[in-house]
Amino acid sequence: MSDDRYSPNSSPWRDVSFEEATRLAIDGAAPRFLASPLTPEEVAATLSSAAAEGLAVCPRGAGTKMSLGNRPSRYDLVLETSGLTSVSEYRPDDLVSVALAGTPLAAAQALFAEYGQWLALDPPFAATTTLGGVLACNQSGPHRLRYGTARDLVLGMRVAYPDGTLARSGAKVVKSVAGYDLHKMHVGALGTLGVIVEVALRLHPLPEERRILACVAPAGPPAWSALAAAVGGLLRLPLALGALEAVNREAARKLAAEGCEIPEGNLLLVLCEGHPRVVGRQADEVGKAAAAASLGVEEIAAGDGAARLIAALAESRTPRGTDDTVLKLSVPPGDTLAALAELEGALPGASLYAHAGSGVVHALPRLIAEDLPALVARLRARARSRHGHLVIQHCPSGAKSGVDVWGPVSAPRLVRDLKAALDPTAVLNPGRFVEGL
Amino acid sequence: MGNDGEPPVVARFRALASELAAIVGPDRVLSDSYSLSLYSYDGGADAAPADLVVIPEDGAQLALVMAAVGRAGAALVPRGGGTGLAGAVIPCEGGVTISFARLRRIISVQPEHLTARVEGGVVNLQLGRAVAPFGLQFAPDPSSQAASTIGGNMAMNAGGPHTLAYGVTANHILGMRLFLADGEAVELGGLAPDAPGYDLTSLVVGSEGTMGVAAEIQVRLIPRPEAVRTMVAMFAGIEQCAGCVGAIIQSGVIPAALEMMDNNTIRAIEAATHAGYPVEAAAVLLIELEGILEAVETGLESVIQTCATAGAIELKVARSDSERAGLWKARKEAGGAMGRLAPNYYVMDGVVPRNTLPQVLAAVERIAAEHELKVATLLHAGDGNIHPALLFDSDEPDAIDRVRAAGAEILQVCLDYGGSITGEHGIGVEKLDVVRRMFSDDDLAIMLRVRDVFDPHRRCNPGKLFPTPGRCIELHGRSLIEAHW
Questions:
Q1: Boundaries of domain holding B31
Q2: Of B112, B251, B424, the CB nearest to A177
Q3: ipTM
Q4: Is B168 in contact with A175 (Cβ distance < 8 A)?
Q5: Residue A432: closest C-alpha in chain B
Q6: pTM
């Protein structure tokens, strides 16, 4: 690849082919230009050129979550981060790594695993997604119970802004209180304030042993309250469980159909992990909590099998086709299973997956697109009464015209002003984020 | 308004004082020079007086105070326990100090959601006691926790020895009610995770009060451990001791706390407390493991093995709760004990990658020697957070200049090794002149744009965090004095 693409006389982008335009379309909108910068500096230069020419830019990593967000109001240039792939620093004896944003998560994890470590995020699309994509979309998975979410694991960042500024925040060490933590602001901002080009990450040791226990709920309406009692008991102990996942009968059936060995029914899946003696104790406590709630319990996976099931649980929250809808409900943690039970009533036949200790439920409902706006309005009102939120993670493109996929935000004026301060001409992902930003 | 001949600025505060007195009562608005001097400093070295100090009684009064201060367009400085070490609550541009002394209600504890909501003036230890009956704890434990407030912990993103396993304050704040400078209140974050929109909560945590004033804070609670074991590992060389830190980190065990002390520090705290630290050791590690019993036992076995391999000459596990408490009491009072080593000392705060501790500590010793200073070093070693105390006698010629020069060089070493100029004390006013060594003008310009979204007239805690030459008071007017950490 020649470097003169970025000489003053050459354009930082090129026209897209017809095939590329189809592949890179977002909700039916196709870009005209494609840029594939190879360095953070080139990202910044591309953004400032685009801003100068009034082009709307959508950053893209592996392209696994391009359907997240509202339909773009403008879309001219796709900025691929696939040229920004390297783990530039890795210090196993400091549990810290620095990597460019286009680095595939799987490649980084493979490197860390050689030293018995990992980035404690297990988001969906784990096989292909990039670090930048995981952070920009604030993706998490079952392990968020133990390790928190991206904001808890990102130590610092370099970000390219639409005016061509390349700026850092945070540090490359596990503790720093110097300056504003702008890197946490960019987590979940969908690239609407700047393009993440480099990240410093806190790592964790991989557990020695993993086992998954399943509690099967009795049939009938009290099912979820029995599981909720078990979850409540486990959360109050300092067990450091890896994950507490709940799935309904429909979701369990789908997981089984995809090759996971799990029982039928409404299930609570508990990931015990750590030193073998710790895992033994965790399993004992799960047994006690299950017994107290009159639930049966059995071990269904261990070792690599357990890791595969956890990955499958993360992956199961993704759409299987463009017509699928994925809703994400968040509520106060203690209400997770009550909210799940309520969704089951509102969405007959839906597959439901909960991070049962964290207040997050994903629903893959069966519905026709025309019903979505009314349904979302109803669910959002319920969510709000629980101090929660409902976000459409994915839905058919055609359904987006009648609904805001994000819903209302707190402090809307600050949200709008923040966008105006950092991206005043709305170069980045216009229309896709909250408040029509 | 205003009396004849009175400067306009004084007249403005006179009018504001009357307005505030009508809200909180005349005895809760302080403007005499004695009171103002009492509120002019924190645990650090600098001082400057406010024009007014106001002490609201509750959230309703705070809202009215914020609105009045906003209408007056005055600078405002929220003040919690005043235990900070970087001067972040010093009203260096005057204005109104808002004391949180009375805003100390625990509004709700919701054990089922592992959270509590508190007023900003609730003291860290007070919160800990309130949630203990539920089997829960608030994890951040700065050494100032008996006096520092949750609002202050939030604003400074406070650390503490036990942040190694549980994370710093930022990891434990779920949301807040924030007053902006104009008196508008906004709710950020909340009980449910992953709210759509920008994560403004995370932005405000650690912003040193420059974005607004947090009236109420929603904190995350975690279960209390069922078992705790504490041990001391002694080393004949400081380098071996520092090297052991990286070895423990890489071993896969995450202690709850991993503290290191050099010989000068050990001697000082033993003289003060007789807790049982070995005065002959060149350096020691204070290691604590907590959690379920099995995690503590297996972790302890692993750490003992790692320490032995790293060359520890002796390992001592605390046999009783009182022995354990003694070790920690001595550690947390190390600041005061430093006074036994020299008439004055200056505690620094920097962070380096944990695998570079041996080289960094050697450099600290070298720099101190070059400036003819003694140094006593104490580290949150597990986080790579170093606290060298430069020991001096302010009566000696050039002593303060030598301390400043050595301090600047030590922070440069932290940066050269890829670290940070502050791990938990903050920038405040203390480190304004070194911020630019860590962040470029571009970095700071972006941060200022974000600040201006929250506080366009820069009235919230002005003069902090961002270097603004020529604006602030003559700092360092007071001599460097002893400070704890």
A1: 8-99
A2: B424
A3: 0.96
A4: yes
A5: B197
A6: 0.95
